[in-house]
């Protein structure tokens, strides 16, 4: 009996988990290698004393019909909730106005947005290796091009396994680093590397502020529309069922890319305090400047400025090397990462037969 074909996936974020899900009914052994302890990448959730907060991607939008069907009909629906309330806007002067996305679904889970990857992978028999950082890729040349495969090694040079196909899903700069460290003397590697390296990013610094009283507002979140305010986005986690106690508020504050770039290497406690103060000014509520507790996260690769050039990944895919992620589409949206993973999963299934 022939052995089942194998796929190695670098990264267990939304794209990698979606690709594994797309292959769930295929006769393929899938192994995912995730550098962190958690799943779902920038769709991240933390817990604190019974509170939950989504501090990367705040929710999943209903912008893609296939993704909407996946979340609402194909995956288990227990614990799936919507953030209550519309998204309002504000400008450079901090003037707040009503009206944005009032009718769009904004999905998460009572247990947090990371449930997305967990539920996708639960539908598969894929193996997930956490806290495993892939450091090098090697092309096996022990046969014709269609028969050759790939080896993965961790950051210490330990062999992680051999695979018939390989999928890279980290942010573009990290994927470019892996491609640069790939032992494959082929123009297709250089072509893919150069195209991936051309995808640039804007950073986001995220501050989280918890309060022992409830902030009364008619909206779930505020978004800056002219890219001219230090604050880019503020979301109220208490609008998500199951996340925050009824008498508390929890703000997730994402600063603008320009502000974040300027403060990226600063002490996080200092820039988090400044972010909270700027948010208190925006809401015109002095008590917001003195939260009960704070948290912070530096997202160095948050917003891709452009997508992967059309057709740039096709030559490498002919040799079983694939890429996926929101950066492939050039959209910093969770649904774009899911769709990218689903699409590449289908292509990998066809490649492996």
CATH architecture of the largest domain: 3-Layer(bba) Sandwich
CATH class division of the largest domain: Alpha Beta
The domain count comes to 2
The major sheet is characterized as:
7 strands, mixed
What CATH calls the topology of the largest domain is FAD/NAD(P)-binding domain
Quick one: CATH superfamily of the largest domain?
FAD/NAD(P)-binding domain
Distance between the termini: 16 Å
Residue-averaged pLDDT, rounded?
A: 95
Strand content: 25-35%
Query: What's the Cα radius of gyration?
Result: 21 Å
Number of strands: 21
Structural class given helices, strands, pairing? alpha/beta
Task: Tell me about this structure.
The protein contains ten helices and 21 strands. It has helices at 14-22, 65-74, 115-122, 172-180, 187-197, 257-263, 268-283, 314-317, 326-329, 334-352; strands at 6-10, 29-33, 45-48, 51-54, 60-61, 80-82, 87-90, 96-97, 106-109, 127-129, 134-139, 150-154, 159-163, 165-168, 182-183, 201-211, 221-224, 231-236, 249-255, 293-304, 321-323. The chain is 27% helix and 29% strand. It is an alpha/beta fold. It has a seven-stranded mixed β-sheet, covered by helices on one side. It folds into two domains: 6-40 and 118-199 and 306-352, FAD/NAD(P)-binding domain, CATH 3.50.50.60; 59-112 and 201-304, Polyamine Oxidase, Chain A, domain 2 (Alpha-Beta Complex). The two termini are 16 Å apart.
């Amino acid at each position: 009996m022939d052995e089942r074909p194998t796929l190695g996936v670098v990264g267990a974020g939304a794209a990698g988990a979606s690709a594994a899900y797309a292959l769930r009914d295929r006769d393929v052994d899938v192994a995912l290698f995730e550098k962190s302890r958690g799943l779902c990448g920038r769709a991240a959730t933390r817990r604190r004393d019974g509170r939950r907060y989504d501090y990367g991607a705040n929710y999943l939008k209903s912008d893609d019909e296939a993704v909407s069907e996946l979340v609402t009909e194909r995956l288990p629906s227990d614990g799936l909730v919507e953030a209550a309330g519309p998204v309002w806007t504000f400008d450079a002067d901090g003037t707040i106005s009503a009206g944005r996305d009032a009718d769009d679904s904004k999905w998460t889970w009572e247990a947090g947005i990371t449930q997305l990857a967990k539920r996708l992978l639960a539908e598969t028999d894929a193996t997930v290796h956490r806290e495993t950082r892939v450091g090098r890729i090697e092309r096996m040349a022990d046969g014709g091009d269609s028969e050759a495969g790939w080896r993965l090694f961790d950051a210490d040079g330990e062999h992680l396994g051999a695979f018939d196909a390989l999928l890279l899903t980290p942010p573009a700069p990290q994927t470019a680093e892996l491609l640069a460290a790939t032992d494959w003397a082929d123009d297709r590697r250089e072509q893919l590397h150069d195209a991936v390296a051309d995808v640039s990013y804007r950073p986001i610094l995220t501050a989280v502020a918890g309060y022992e009283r409830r902030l009364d507002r008619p909206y779930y979140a505020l978004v800056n529309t002219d890219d001219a305010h230090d604050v880019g986005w503020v979301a109220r986690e208490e609008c998500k069922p199951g996340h925050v106690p009824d008498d508390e508020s929890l703000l997730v504050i994402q600063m603008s890319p320009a502000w974040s770039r300027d403060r990226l290497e600063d002490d996080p406690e200092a820039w988090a305090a400044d972010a909270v103060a700027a948010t208190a000014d925006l809401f015109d509520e002095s008590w917001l400047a003195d939260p009960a507790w704070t948290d912070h996260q530096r997202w160095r690769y948050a917003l891709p400025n452009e997508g992967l050039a059309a057709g740039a990944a096709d030559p490498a895919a002919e040799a079983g090397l694939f890429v996926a992620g929101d950066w492939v589409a050039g959209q910093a949206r969770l649904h774009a990462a899911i769709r990218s993973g689903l699409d590449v999963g289908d292509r990998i299934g066809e490649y492996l037969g």
